[in-house]
Amino acid sequence: MIFRCTPSEKAALVAKARAAGLPNATLMREALGLTEARRRKPVPRVDPKLTFAIARVGGNLNQLSRWINGAVKSGRASQIDALKVAVQLVAIERQMAQIVAAHTGGGE
C-alpha cells in the first residue's frame, strides 16, 4: 500500500514506530485497527567482540560437557577426574569474569 505524506509526517511515523519497537507496517495496521501489536522490548545492541568472546567460552563448555557425556555413555563415569573438571570450570569462570570486566569498564 502506498500513501502520500510529507517528509515531516513520515519522520514522525518512523519515530513513533521506533519508539514503540515496531516495524512501520505493524504501526500502520494497528492504527487502522486491523491488528493489536505485541509489545516487545527492543533488542539491545551488543558489541560483536562480546558475542565472539561469549561464543568461545560456550565452545569450551561444550567440549567439557561432550567429554563428560562421552565418559558416562561409555561406562567410564567413575574414571572422571573431578579435579580436572573443577579446574576447567574455574578457567571458564575466569574467562567469563574477564569478558564481563572488559565490556563493563572494569577491565580498562
Structure notes:
The protein is an all-alpha fold and 108 residues long. 66% of the residues lie in helices and 0% in strands. The chain contains 4 helices and no strands. The protein has helices at 7-20, 24-31, 48-73, 82-104. Helix 3 runs antiparallel to helix 4 (82-104). The longest helix has 26 residues, at 48-73.
What's a concise summary of this model?
By secondary structure, this protein is mainly α. It is built from four helices and no strands. Helix content is about 65%, strand content about 0%.
Features:
108 residues; mainly alpha; 66% helix
Q: Give the uncertain stretches in residue-range form.
A: none
> Strand percentage, roughly?
under 5%
Coarse shape: elongated
Number of helices: 4
SSE layout and pairing:
Elements: H1 7-20, H2 24-31, H3 48-73, H4 82-104
Helix pairs in contact: 3-4
